[in-house]
Specification:
By secondary structure, the protein is of the alpha+beta class. It contains 13 helices and 5 strands. The protein folds into 3 domains: 193 residues, Lambda Exonuclease, Chain A (Alpha-Beta Complex), CATH 3.90.320; 62 residues; 73 residues, no CATH class. The chain is globular. The structure holds iron/sulfur cluster.
């Protein structure tokens, strides 16, 4: 396979994941480069989930070895979705092997001698007869553009095609979302469509690379923008809140207020993160400092703690246990290890033993964009 995959980083060039933002706000590309990137903890959890799915698909990790409940559910649902997508496009993976699939590989698209952008896809499968499937996992809750309108997926498909044009007749691209309920969207790109896509994406990137590219605010493009904390255009949107009349918060005004509130929340978070980073780097932010928040005590070994306390003859086991929380994930982990069974078997046994003790409660409903 000559997919020209490269393991080096983005080399300061755009990546497929940035192209939708470049399209919505051309000025964001250059403007974000003013500030160093801050990786959020949400992104880290997303990376962990991507890594786990990758290892399970590669066969390096068994699904039953993913102990964390949410991560296990995420991997399980991702695999189920993959199967459903393959059923819909009428291809089978059973007879194929790792020679026909690639995970987390970066490929480049050139514009003449210049590198235009790179694309790192989550999963690419080759079913023979020129049919490929490219999958992008969205492992966290969030508002994602469906595959049919998703510029990131189009850019990824183009990158794959550009690196192996003779082998590809059609690429199916799927956006697979394990949460909140497992769902996917799917688009089929023919080679004609991909040939046309080059000019479309080239125009987006070229426009965004101009020094005077316009900054166009909007919740979708601003919420993960590294320049949000300093961007005057996003503040203009937030300042519109002052024109809303709180005595007339009808459904239409509330809807507008919600858009502003969501952006304002992200803006406040971005300002705090920047301030924390600057002070942490030794710079002064007038009137603000980092203050230690004291210490918290934790018990390293519940087992050793229990033994010591029981030796005092002051507490009964039930009194001791009433001061402790037992996690469902932790129980599954120890039951699985003790019984030397799979995770699914451990869950099933524990559910049956603890039938009236383990309760499933709905989490509070999240307010999301319809
Ligand atoms: S904050 Fe919004 S308007 Fe400002 S550069 Fe970023 S995406 Fe563009």
């Amino acid at each position: 396979m000559d997919l020209n995959s490269e393991s080096d980083e983005r080399e300061g060039r755009p990546s497929a994941s940035a192209i939708e933002q470049m399209k919505l706000c051309p000025g964001s590309w250059k403007y974000q480069q003013i500030l160093p990137q801050i990786e959020s903890s949400e992104a880290s959890e997303g990376t962990t989930r991507h890594d786990l799915i990758e290892q399970v698909i590669r066969g390096k990790l068994s699904l039953s070895d993913v102990d964390d409940d949410q991560q296990h559910e995420c991997c399980k649902r991702a695999l189920d979705l993959l199967q459903k997508i393959e059923t819909e496009i009428e291809v089978g993976w059973a007879d194929l092997d790792n020679q026909h699939q690639w995970l987390e590989e970066r490929v480049w698209v050139h514009d003449g001698a210049k590198k235009l952008y790179s694309a790192k896809y989550d999963l690419l499968r080759d079913y023979g007869n020129g049919t490929f499937l490219l999958v992008d996992w969205k492992t966290l809750f969030g508002d994602h553009t469906p595959a049919q309108e998703n510029v990131q997926l189009l850019a990824q498909a183009l990158a794959v095609y550009r690196n192996s044009p003779s082998r590809i007749e059609r690429i199916y691209c799927a956006l697979a979302e394990p949460f909140p309920s497992p769902t996917y969207s799917l688009v089929e790109y023919t080679t004609d469509r991909l040939e046309q896509a080059f000019e479309f994406i080239q125009t987006i990137v070229t426009k965004a690379e101009k020094d005077d590219a316009n900054r166009i605010p909007g919740l979708k493009q601003c919420k993960y923008c590294d320049a949000l904390a300093i961007c005057p255009e996003s503040r203009m949107v937030i300042s519109k809140a002052f024109n809303l009349n709180p005595t007339e918060l009808d459904s239409e005004i509330l809807s507008e207020a919600m858009n502003i509130a969501s952006l304002a929340e992200k803006w406040a978070k971005a300002v705090k993160e920047r301030t924390r980073q600057m002070i942490g780097d030794g710079e002064e932010v007038f009137g603000w400092k980092l203050r230690g928040s004291g210490t918290v005590r934790s018990i390293d070994s519940a087992d050793a703690c229990a033994k010591r306390l029981m030796e005092t003859n002051q507490l009964s086991w039930s009194e001791f246990l009433s001061a402790n929380k037992t996690s469902w994930s932790g129980l599954i982990k120890i039951w699985k290890a003790k019984r030397m069974i799979t995770r699914d078997e451990a869950v099933s046994e524990l559910e049956s033993i603890l039938v009236d003790i383990v309760k499933e409660r709905p989490k509070s409903e999240a307010l999301v964009k319809a």
